[in-house]
Every structure is written in structure tokens, then in C-alpha cells.
Amino acid sequence: MFKKFEEREDITGSQQLKSSVQKGIRNKLIEQYPHLEDVMNEILPKKENFKLIKCRDHVELIAGHDGTVLFVKHRDLPYIPTLRLLHKYPFILPHQQVDKGAIKFVLNGSQIMCPGLTSPGAKLNEELPQDSVVAVMAEGKQHALGIGVMKMSGGEIRSVNKGAGIDNVHYLNDGLWKVTRVQ
């Protein structure tokens, strides 16, 4: 989704949100990610205003009061935390781990294939349903290298074991990763 994202070209505008809209977004985020409830005031403090940045292709970014992009919203997907936020709060998303051989493909923006999730070195959480937003971890690495949306359930990935299992939405060094702050 963000492979060729360019801040100057893809951002079309931004707006300051009313406090009632901000409260609605905070509540939606806590509903989607219940683990965030304890740290929501650190991420999006009630006393600080945050911005909604509109981009091309029906993408919206939520930026904190300092301009740091925290969440991404595409019209077809739920709110997704950015990798920078996920590195700070790794418990936000459930983890799926790929083997070492899949790392270069994930960092190239490719979809995560089922064999990369079921081979030795990979760890597959079979309890997760289809359309779950997950952190893509890698064998031998501490931090997530991508964020994806599961195309099938964990059990289906294990049983089918071919084709794409996770859509790669955001990964290290993609266009969104390079946007540190927006004005």
C-alpha cells in the first residue's frame, strides 16, 4: 500500500479535528485494540489535538500533536498502527513470525506466503481469524518488520500451505516509514 508513497505527492490536505470527533476516534481505536486502553493517553493525549491527514487513494493518516504519524486508515481496512508506534508498543498487535528466507521479500513489499509462515523458524498463531491485522515478525529479529492483514485464518494457512497468507500493508523503509513528521 505504501511502496511508492511520497509525502509531497500523496498528501492532499490536513485538518484539525473537533474534540468530539477526536473522542470518537480514540474510542474506535480502543474498541479495535483493547490493549491500548492503558496507554491511549500517552499515544493520543486528551489535552492535545491531533490531525487527520488526507492522502490519495482513500488513505487517511492520524498524526499526533507533534506531527508524528501514528495510525493509518484505508476505507476498506480498520485503523492500523504505524511501525514506529508498533516498535514503541509491541503488544498492540498479535504476532505472526516468518522464517529468515522471507525477510528480504517482506522488506520488498511482497505478500507473505503461507510456506514462509509454516516452515521451521516461523511461528504461526492458528487462532487468528481472517482479516486480522498482525505484526509481521522475523526469525531472529526483535522488532516487527511489517504490518499485514491476514487473507485467511491461521488454521487455513497451516492446512492450505500455498499462496499468499498475509497482505503486506506497511513495512520497514516503505514510503510511510520515511515520513517521520507531517506539518
From TrEMBL:
Gene Ontology MF terms in the entry: RNA binding
Primary location recorded for the protein, binned into one broad class: cytoplasm
Lineage of producing organism: Eukaryota, Metazoa, Ecdysozoa, Nematoda, Chromadorea
NCBIfam families reported in the protein's UniProt record: unchar_dom_2
Organism of derivation: Steinernema glaseri
One GO cellular component term: cytoplasm
Keywords for the protein's UniProt record, in alphabetical order: Cytoplasm
Protein name: PUA domain-containing protein
UniProt cross-references to CDD domains, sorted A to Z: MCT1_N, PUA_MCTS-1-like
InterPro entries, sorted: MCT-1/Tma20, Pre-PUA, PUA, PUA-like_sf, Uncharacterised_CHP00451
Transmembrane stretches, start-end: none
GO BP: formation of translation preinitiation complex; translation reinitiation
